[in-house]
Amino acid sequence: MAQTFGRHRCETDLGFLVPPKFEVPIIFLFSDAQKDVHILIPETSELPYVQYVADNFSARVRQPVKVFHDADRKKYRLCPIPEGISPNTSSFGRFCFTRDNGAVQGFKRSQAVEAEYERRIPRPRNSWILYRQVKSQEVASQNPGMPTTSISKIISDMWKSENPEVKAYWQQMAEREDRNHKLMYPDYKYTTSRASNGRKPLAGS
User: Fold this and answer.
1) Domain check: are 85 and 9 in the same one?
2) 143: left (phi > 0), else alpha (psi -120 to 50), else beta?
3) In what order do the strands lie in the sheet with 94-99?
4) What tens digit of pLDDT does each residue of 42-75 get?
5) 45 and 135 housed in the same domain
6) For 92-123, how does the pLDDT look when each residue is reduced to its tens digit (9 = 90+)?
7) Which residue did the predictor score with more confidence, 203 or 69?
8) Is the pLDDT of residue 136 over 80?
9) Where would I find the beta strands (DSSP E) of the chain?
10) Locate the HMG box domain: which residues (predicted)?
11) Which of 65, 164, 188, 190 shows its CA 20 to 30 Å from the CA of 174?
């Protein structure tokens, strides 16, 4: 069900692939067999991060999440499978472990670990950023060697001249990404660098 937009961006009706500039791309995949959503994470991801995503996923769907290593896709596959259900998972890869959020309730990560996870979580992108990332690839491929500042200026002018229907489409994409982001990171709170450094905001700001 995955569709490709440009060279790097992949999106489905249920999720998205984060652009390469982010450390850990995540794919939401609809399983026709289980009629459920699975999550794919690169096999190069650190195990604590895979467990962290599985815990959040388990909390969201309110059931255990089994993690498999899919060698063909080179991904970890996170699958919500209720207790007592034994679906055919032969195509999912090698079983690794199960994460059940109910079993880790009350667990408190250290501030250092919490900060590391927050650092890894990308902010959801707005309509302009989504548009710019897709169009920048097109403009750059059509104008090899063009400076980044010139590319940004061209895309900015393109955005200003787009009709309301096009802008509405990208707004829908941004809203979809925001929903997916809340699904994956229900406890996420954006903090500015000023706040993270413990500084008080300037008066009137």
Assistant:
1) yes
2) beta
3) 27-31, 36-42, 75-80, 65-70, 94-99
4) 888 878 888 888 888 888 888 889 999 988 888 9
5) no
6) 889 888 888 754 444 444 454 455 445 556 67
7) 69
8) yes
9) 3-5, 9-11, 27-31, 36-42, 65-70, 75-80, 94-99
10) 121-189
11) 65
| Three-class secondary structure assignment of 70-81 | ECCCCEEEEEEC
**Do the domain assignments include residue 199?**
no
Question: For the segment 5-52, what is each residue's pLDDT rounded down to a tens digit?
Answer: 333 344 434 343 333 334 567 888 876 665 678 999 988 887 888 888
**Which structure tokens are listed for 148?**
């980044």
Phi, psi of 31 (to 5 degrees): -90, 115
Q: Are residues 142 and 97 in the same domain?
A: no
Residue ending a domain, choose from 120, 135, 169: 120
Question: Cα angle vertex 34, ends 30, 39, to 5°?
Answer: 40
The domain containing residue 82 runs over which residues?
Answer: 3-120
Is residue 83 in a domain? yes
Query: What pLDDT is stored for residue 7 in this prediction?
Result: 36
Q: Name the pTM for this structure.
A: 0.41
C-alpha distance from residue 63 to each of 16, 27, 55, 82 (Å): 23, 20, 10, 6
The phi and psi torsions of 24 (rounded to 5 degrees) equal -125, 95
Q: Is 202 a member of any domain?
A: no
